[in-house]
Amino acid sequence: MRRPLVAGNWKMNGSKESLVSLMQSIAVGCDHFKTSNMELVVFPPFVYLEQAEKHLTGTCVAWGAQDLCSESNGAYTGEISATMLNDFHCRYVIVGHSERRHIFGETDQQIATKFNAALKSNLRPILCVGETNEQREKGLTDSIIMRQLESVFSKLPAASDFDKIVVAYEPVWAIGTGKTATPDQVQEVHTLIRNQLKKYNVELASKARIIYGGSVNSGNAHQLCHLSDVDGVLVGGASLDANQFIEIGKLCK
Ligand code: PGA
Predict the structure, then answer these.
(1) 33-49 tens-digit pLDDT
(2) Contacts 24+ apart (CB under 8 A), 246-249
(3) Which residue of 45, 84, 202, 207 is 20 to 30 Å from 92, comparing CA positions?
(4) Ligand 1, closest atom to CA 214?
């Protein structure tokens, strides 16, 4: 049984004060998930990971980082390594978010090395994949997703901890736009991802979680979370509101 995952990507938002208050409210609100199988994770900006460790340890909310460097240490000004994330007891790390791919020009190759660096350090990577609107209109959705998966999973060591792996399908046109993919569109791509993972490794396909992201909110979470190949959601904007994030968690239980 794959454990449902509800993840909140806070991106470059908030301040020390506002994010500590958000962490505290989510920690209080998630008390009723204690007996459930649901996993709740938040992704504050790097500089607030210390606050996450301080305020979320012992609660049922885990935390992670929005990115990492593929190198473990050295002369890489401005970068943060997996070892450093482990120092703050991060459980997860997002890899290849579309904002990293499209705004900062990250390549499939760089994303693959980050993914492996995360796994090697025992962090759970959430690999984001997804097509742009233009690619969807040209009928390129499947080939884009398959290319993004291929660069990471063709190099995956056979003995990896497959249950630590998460793939997030995030259509670029649905991120921060209020335009959620339809349940049919989501199910179709999630099935494609699951079938593709099977080609790399059958155990990987059955253990890896595939979550959906892109304008998820408390109005659409229930429908999306209960599709057969959807194991949870990656929430951006709506995760900055504790009540809404908790509500999404309840709807995905
Ligand atoms: P959104 O962001 O929920 O604000 O669309 C999702 C994401 O970027 O992970």
Answers:
(1) 878 889 999 999 999 99
(2) 246/26, 246/29, 246/30, 247/218, 247/221, 248/6, 248/216, 248/217, 248/218, 248/221, 249/6, 249/30, 249/33, 249/38, 249/40
(3) 202
(4) 5
